[in-house]
Amino acid sequence: MNRSSTGLARLLLVAVLISAGCQGYRDGSSRTVGEFADDVGIQSRVKLALINDEEIKGLRINTEVKRGVVTLHGRVGSHAQKQRALDLAGSVKGVERVEDRLTVVTE
To answer: How many domains does the chain have?
Structure first.
Protein backbone atom coordinates (compact mmCIF):
# COMPACT_ATOMS: atom_id res chain seq x y z
CA MET A 1 0.00 0.00 0.00
CA ASN A 2 1.56 3.34 -1.00
CA ARG A 3 1.42 6.56 1.01
CA SER A 4 -1.60 8.03 -0.76
CA SER A 5 -3.70 4.88 -0.28
CA THR A 6 -2.57 4.62 3.35
CA GLY A 7 -3.64 8.23 3.93
CA LEU A 8 -6.93 7.58 2.17
CA ALA A 9 -7.52 4.47 4.28
CA ARG A 10 -6.90 6.46 7.46
CA LEU A 11 -9.20 9.25 6.33
CA LEU A 12 -11.94 6.75 5.52
CA LEU A 13 -11.49 5.05 8.89
CA VAL A 14 -12.00 8.39 10.64
CA ALA A 15 -15.07 9.09 8.50
CA VAL A 16 -16.51 5.66 9.29
CA LEU A 17 -15.95 6.17 13.00
CA ILE A 18 -17.60 9.59 12.93
CA SER A 19 -20.59 8.44 10.90
CA ALA A 20 -20.98 5.32 13.01
CA GLY A 21 -21.12 7.47 16.10
CA CYS A 22 -24.29 9.07 14.78
CA GLN A 23 -25.93 5.84 13.65
CA GLY A 24 -27.92 5.29 16.86
CA TYR A 25 -29.57 8.66 16.42
CA ARG A 26 -30.53 7.93 12.82
CA ASP A 27 -32.27 4.63 13.30
CA GLY A 28 -33.59 5.15 16.83
CA SER A 29 -32.50 1.72 18.03
CA SER A 30 -30.17 1.02 20.87
CA ARG A 31 -27.15 -1.22 20.89
CA THR A 32 -24.83 -2.09 23.70
CA VAL A 33 -21.42 -0.45 23.74
CA GLY A 34 -19.91 -3.81 22.79
CA GLU A 35 -22.25 -4.24 19.81
CA PHE A 36 -21.52 -0.70 18.67
CA ALA A 37 -17.76 -1.23 18.93
CA ASP A 38 -18.01 -4.55 17.07
CA ASP A 39 -20.04 -2.91 14.30
CA VAL A 40 -17.54 -0.06 13.92
CA GLY A 41 -14.69 -2.56 13.62
CA ILE A 42 -16.59 -4.65 11.08
CA GLN A 43 -17.52 -1.56 9.07
CA SER A 44 -13.87 -0.43 8.96
CA ARG A 45 -12.64 -3.86 7.85
CA VAL A 46 -15.33 -4.17 5.16
CA LYS A 47 -14.64 -0.70 3.76
CA LEU A 48 -10.89 -1.30 3.68
CA ALA A 49 -11.40 -4.66 1.95
CA LEU A 50 -13.53 -2.96 -0.71
CA ILE A 51 -11.06 -0.10 -1.20
CA ASN A 52 -8.03 -2.37 -1.40
CA ASP A 53 -9.59 -4.71 -3.96
CA GLU A 54 -8.22 -3.91 -7.43
CA GLU A 55 -11.49 -4.84 -9.13
CA ILE A 56 -13.85 -2.96 -6.79
CA LYS A 57 -11.87 0.03 -5.50
CA GLY A 58 -14.86 0.54 -3.15
CA LEU A 59 -15.01 4.33 -3.19
CA ARG A 60 -18.53 4.33 -4.65
CA ILE A 61 -19.82 1.79 -2.14
CA ASN A 62 -21.17 2.89 1.23
CA THR A 63 -21.35 0.51 4.15
CA GLU A 64 -23.63 0.31 7.16
CA VAL A 65 -23.38 -2.28 9.91
CA LYS A 66 -25.88 -3.09 12.61
CA ARG A 67 -25.38 -6.09 14.88
CA GLY A 68 -23.08 -7.74 12.35
CA VAL A 69 -25.42 -7.25 9.39
CA VAL A 70 -23.62 -5.33 6.63
CA THR A 71 -25.63 -3.31 4.12
CA LEU A 72 -23.86 -2.20 0.95
CA HIS A 73 -25.22 0.87 -0.89
CA GLY A 74 -23.87 2.45 -4.02
CA ARG A 75 -22.94 1.83 -7.63
CA VAL A 76 -20.83 -0.77 -9.34
CA GLY A 77 -19.93 -1.20 -12.99
CA SER A 78 -21.05 -4.78 -13.54
CA HIS A 79 -22.83 -7.74 -12.01
CA ALA A 80 -19.42 -9.37 -11.49
CA GLN A 81 -18.26 -6.36 -9.44
CA LYS A 82 -21.48 -6.48 -7.45
CA GLN A 83 -20.96 -10.14 -6.60
CA ARG A 84 -17.29 -9.49 -5.78
CA ALA A 85 -18.28 -6.70 -3.35
CA LEU A 86 -20.88 -8.91 -1.68
CA ASP A 87 -18.39 -11.79 -1.39
CA LEU A 88 -15.67 -9.52 0.04
CA ALA A 89 -18.04 -8.08 2.64
CA GLY A 90 -19.27 -11.55 3.59
CA SER A 91 -15.73 -12.83 4.09
CA VAL A 92 -14.89 -10.26 6.78
CA LYS A 93 -14.65 -11.66 10.30
CA GLY A 94 -17.75 -10.87 12.36
CA VAL A 95 -20.15 -10.37 9.44
CA GLU A 96 -23.38 -12.27 10.07
CA ARG A 97 -25.12 -11.40 6.80
CA VAL A 98 -24.77 -8.99 3.87
CA GLU A 99 -27.71 -7.04 2.51
CA ASP A 100 -27.45 -5.93 -1.10
CA ARG A 101 -28.53 -2.41 -2.01
CA LEU A 102 -26.00 -2.05 -4.83
CA THR A 103 -26.95 -0.74 -8.25
CA VAL A 104 -25.24 -1.89 -11.44
CA VAL A 105 -24.56 1.12 -13.64
CA THR A 106 -22.86 0.59 -16.98
CA GLU A 107 -21.47 3.86 -18.29
So the answer is: 1
12-29 pLDDT, tens digit each: 666 666 665 554 445 556
Q: 26: number of CA atoms within 13 Å, CB side?
A: 8
b/e map 8-29, b = 16+ CB within 10 Å: ebeebbeebeeebeebeeeeee
Q: How far apart are CA 13 and CA 81, in angstroms?
A: 23
Confidence of residue 11 (pLDDT cuts 50, 70, 90): low
Range of the domain at 97: 3-104
In this prediction, residue 98 has a pLDDT band, given cuts at 50, 70 and 90, of very high
Measured torsion, CA atoms of residues 56, 58, 63, 68, in degrees rounded to the nearest 10 = 50
CATH label of the domain that carries residue 46: 3.30.1340.30
Give, as one character, the DSSP assignment of residue 57.
-
